[in-house]
Design goal:
66% helix; mainly alpha; 0% strand
């Protein structure tokens, strides 16, 4: 299946890899920041508010 990548443009491959990296990084925020109530419906604004609140309270 690796030969199929030869038919994709470099920009498409880079975009896919960047999207995968961002997705994985966001999924790791829960453990990294110690967020308890993190679900699929949690938006990034709530995560950042929770993270900043945790940082201020120690």
């Amino acid at each position: 299946l690796g030969f199929l990548v030869d038919f994709l443009s470099h920009a498409a491959i880079v975009g896919f890899m960047a999207g995968a990296a961002v997705t994985i990084a966001l999924q790791q925020l829960r453990g990294l920041l110690g967020i308890e109530d993190f679900t699929r419906e949690t938006d990034i604004v709530s995560v950042m508010k929770s993270a900043s609140g945790s940082a201020h309270h120690g």
